[in-house]
Amino acid sequence: MKIVFTREKITEHIWRIFGLGDTCMYYVEGKQRGLLIDTAYGIGDLRTYIEKTFLQPYEVLLTHGHWDHANGAGQWDRVYLHRKDRELYRSFTDISFRRDRLRKTVKDIDTCPEELFVKDFEGDFSDLEEGMRFRLGDVTAEVIETPGHTQGIVSLLVEEDRTLLLGDACGEFTFMFREEASAIATYQRTLKKILDQKDRYDRILRQHGSYGSPLSLIKENMELCHEILEKRDDHIPWNYMGQPVYVAKKIDPDTHRRADGKSGNIVYSMNKLHKETI
Ligand SMILES: [Zn+2]
Predict the structure, then answer these.
(1) How far, in Å, is the centroid of ligand 1 from the Cα of 148?
(2) How far is the centre of ligand 1, averaged over its atoms, from the C-alpha of 149 (Å)?
(3) Rounded to the nearest whole angstrom, what is the distance from the C-alpha of residue 1 to the centroid of ligand 1?
(4) How far is the CA of 64 from the centre of ligand 1 (A)?
(5) Ligand 1: distance of its center to the CA of 31 in Å?
(6) Where in the chain are the domains?
(7) pTM for the full model?
C-alpha cells in the first residue's frame, strides 16, 4: 500500500491536506513560516510531504488529542497540544485501534504494513493557550480555546483570511458523548464565545464530512444546547458502538445530516446534561 498525500488551496494562505482516511489537515502558509494543523491518523510520511511541498520553517499544532487528528505527531520533536488533551492522545495511539477506526473509509487497511504507522510522540508537547498568536509573516493564526468535544480542543482564527478553523469543535454531527467531552452547558459557553467574535471571520472550516459549513452552523449548535438542556430537542436514540446516545435533531439516516435542511447537530449522552464545568 502506498500512502499518498494531496492538497487543495482553500483561501489565500490556507491549504487543505488529505492523507489516508476521512480526516483532513490544514496548512497555513505565510511568507516567512507555516503552521501545520493536525496530523491525522499518523500513517505514511507526512513530514517529508510537508517539507518538500512548502520549503519553509513551520510549526506543528494539534487541535485536540483524538486518534484521527494527532497520531502523526511522532514524526516531530516539538508539537503544540493543549495540556488538557495530552493524556487523551496517549490513550489512542495503539496501531490495531487505529486500523479499526480506519476500516470504514479505507477498506484495505489490513494490507497496510505496521512500519507505515507513525510511532508515539517522544518529544515535549508545547502549550497552547487562549490568545496565543502564530505570526507567519503576512498572516497570523490565533488560538481560541473551544472546550466541548474534548477538554483541550482549540480552534484557530486565521485573521487575514477571515477564516475560523474549527477542527471538531463545532460540526454537523458534533460528538458530545465520549468521556472526554464537556458538559453541554460548558459547550454552550464555548459557542457563545465563538459567536461573540463573529465580526472577525466570514468562513468556517472543519475536518470531517463536507469540511466546510455555512456560518449559521455555530448559532444552530448553540440553539441546540439550549434545547437539549431544556429537553426540547428531538432526542432521537442512537447507538454508537454499543453506547446509547441521542441525536438532538432528526437526521437523514443515509447522510447523517439534518432532515430539516439546517446544518448544526449534536450527538450527546445524558450525563452531559449535568451542569458541572469540567
Ligand atoms: Zn475529535
Answers:
(1) 10
(2) 7
(3) 26
(4) 7
(5) 30
(6) 1-169, 170-278
(7) 0.96
Q: What one-character-per-residue DSSP string does 7-55 give?
A: EEE-SSSEEEEE-SSS--EEEEE-SS-EEEE--BT-BS-HHHHHHHHH-
Q: For residue 175, how far is its CA from the centre of ligand 1 (angstroms)?
A: 8
Separation of alpha carbons 130 and 122, rounded Å: 25
Give the pairing of strands 236-240 and 212-213. unpaired
Q: Alpha helices, DSSP H only, in the chain?
A: 46-54, 67-70, 86-91, 95-102, 184-196, 216-229
Superfamily of domain 1-169: Ribonuclease Z/Hydroxyacylglutathione hydrolase-like (3.60.15.10)
Residue 278: the pLDDT is 47
Could you tell me the distance, in angstroms and rounded to a whole number, from the CA of residue 71 to the centre of ligand 1? 12
Q: Which whole number is the average pLDDT over 3-28?
A: 97
Query: With bands split at pLDDT 50, 70 and 90, how would you rate the model's confidence at 140?
Result: very high
How far is ligand 1, taken at its centre, from the CA of residue 66, in Å?
A: 5
What's residue 95's pLDDT? 96
Specify the pLDDT at position 104.
Answer: 86
32 CA distance to ligand 1 centroid (A)?
Answer: 30
- Which of 25, 24, 16, 29 lies closest to 141 in space, CA to CA? 29
CA of 177 to the centre of ligand 1 (A): 11
Alpha-carbon distance of 109 to 21, in angstroms, equals: 10
For the purposes of burial, counting CB atoms within 10 Å of the CB of 81, is it exposed (0-12), middle (13-18) or buried (19 or more)? buried
Closest CA to 86 of 4, 173, 153, 37: 153
All residues at 6 or more sequence positions from 96 whose CB lies less than 8 Å from its CB, including other chains: none
Rounded to the nearest angstrom, the distance between the alpha carbon of 4 and the centre of ligand 1 is 23
